[in-house]
Amino acid sequence: MAKISPQLQDQLMKLQQVQQQVELLVNQRMQLERESKEIDRAIAEIDQLESADAVVYKTIGAILIKADKDKVKEELTERKETLEMRVKTITRQEERAKSDYESKRKTLQTALQQSKMGDTGEEFPGPM
Questions:
Q1: Distance from C-alpha of 14 to C-alpha of 26, rounded to nearest angstrom
Q2: Which of 47, 69, 105, 121 could form a disulfide with 56 if both were Cys (CB 3.0 to 4.6 A apart)?
Q3: Tell me: the pLDDT tens digits for 29-72?
Q4: Helices 6-48 + 69-114 axis angle, to 10
Q5: CATH fold of 41-109
C-alpha cells in the first residue's frame, strides 16, 4: 500500500473526528429520549392514582421523600418539555454533523481516487 500524503492523513483524521462527534450526539439523543419515556411512564402512573391525597414519593439524591402528587406531575411535565427541547437541538446538531461527515467522506474518497490509492474499488464507510 502506498503512503498517504499528509493532507490526506489530515482529512482522514478530521473525518474520524466528525464520525466520533456523530456517535456522541446519537448517544446523547438516545439517552435523553430514554429519560423522556421514563418520565412518560411516571406521569402515566401518577394519572392512574385515583385519590387526590394519594401518597407519592420522589427521589432526591439517594433518598425518597413524600411529595405532593400535583407538584410532582408538574415537575415531571416541565422536565419532559426541557428534554424535548434538548432532543430537538441535539437532533439538529446530529443532522449537521452527519452532513459534514458525508461531505468529508466524499472529498476524501475523491482525493484518494485521484492519488491512485482508490484503485481497489473500496470505498470509505458511508453515512451512519
A1: 18
A2: 69
A3: 999 999 999 999 999 999 998 887 788 999 999 999 999 999 99
A4: 160
A5: Helix Hairpins (1.10.287)
